[in-house]
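User: Teach me something about this protein's shape.
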Amino acid sequence: MRGPEAEPRVVVPVAQQGDEGLVERIRGSQHGVQERTPDPAALPLGPHAHRTEPEYGHRPDPSPGQATCPSTVLSRPVVTNESSGSHASLRRSASTRPTSTGVRSGASGSAKADVWTIRMPSMSSGTSRRTSTRQPYDDGVTVTDARAARRPAGTGPWDRLPVPSEQALRRLAVASLVSQLGIVVTGGAVRLTGSGMGCPTVPRCTDDSLVATPELGVHGAIEFGNRLLTFVLAAVAALMLLAVLRTLGSERPRRDLVVPAVVLVVGIPAQALIGMVTVWTHLNPWIVMLHYMCSAVLVAVATVLVRRAQRPLGAQPDEVGSPWLRRLAGATVAVAAVVVYLGTVVTGTGPHAGDDAARRTGLDLESVAQLHTDVVFLLIGLSAGLYFAARALGSPGRSARAAGTLIGVELGQGLVGVTQYALNLPVVLVGLHMLGAALLVAAVVDAWLAARWLPS
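Assistant: First, the predicted structure itself:
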């Protein structure tokens, strides 16, 4: 008994670079190729042939032995020959290797060849065929992909923002450091001019006004101006963080700047909250000390931000490689923190409380000033040891230069401190000494970084 007649197939390889391709029409049964026609027209079209396309996105069920591409769904162009009633449906599949049929000469070794598989119903031997000069797929085939409905990458509002340059990041980092130093100066002006309670309430300046009123005089203007500067710091820190986050999706992400930028953004509101508590407690000296120490920490973080921003494309530099030098630098940072804190204790014990009605620490001014001086001498000795240790190691990187800068700041700060104490704490020198303390923080952090990392 004769088995069911095999359904004829036509396999059309699609050329990679616009070649014409070869149509290999296989008709008949199980005895292989019966007819080979090198015709670019995959399907014969009658004089009244037309093309219809069903709804896009329809994926027909594959027949046994027929490969399909799971990620691509093609519309099914159907070519109908009205004179013969024949029709054919088209599918596209991605084959990772040449098939046993439809292999074109010169393309058998190509990987992932695109193959058009055309399945045709059996045709009677008496069916007439006519060859059209028109390519059957000149109209193209529309591909419907689930991913096409998604929003293309890089078209959102965030993606349209320009990626900041390395120079812009460095400038924003320097602006962060300068603004942190600036608020130390204005905060000192509030305290030294007796304007600590210039705005007696927070967050409003008075119960009836958000801003300073003429009745508050110059003290209200100074205190309110210091409060406004907080918004400037917050704006600079926010711009720095946004600039850093924008680089994360670019070709040069600056992940090394994320942590210090976040600390600045979070630290500024924390500092403002401590300032509010200072007003609520009517300038409690210990709260005022905490307020200044918070500013010192933010200056240190801004210094780290500046040095990291100077690294080309965020590349981590090589280490200096001397553990003893690194430990000596760490000890210097710790002693410098004690020096700054004792300086705030001296100021809280002295006459400049920020308001005539504010209470003081109750400590003996001469005793705390002497303790402060003793720790300063220890700091200078550690800084000198850091300098000579760096020189003994051949001054790796900028370690010796940064230690020398630190010694210069300490000597200048010591000179101002001795002078202000001898002159009974004049306002100008006390303010300059407060600024010098902030510069000391920046210098000691920079020396610590120089003892750890070589220049980029």
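Now, about its shape. The chain has two domains: 1-150, 166-452. Helices lie at 166-192, 217-247, 258-280, 285-309, 323-349, 365-392, 399-422, 427-452. If you'd like, I can walk through any region in more detail.
User: That's plenty for now, thanks!
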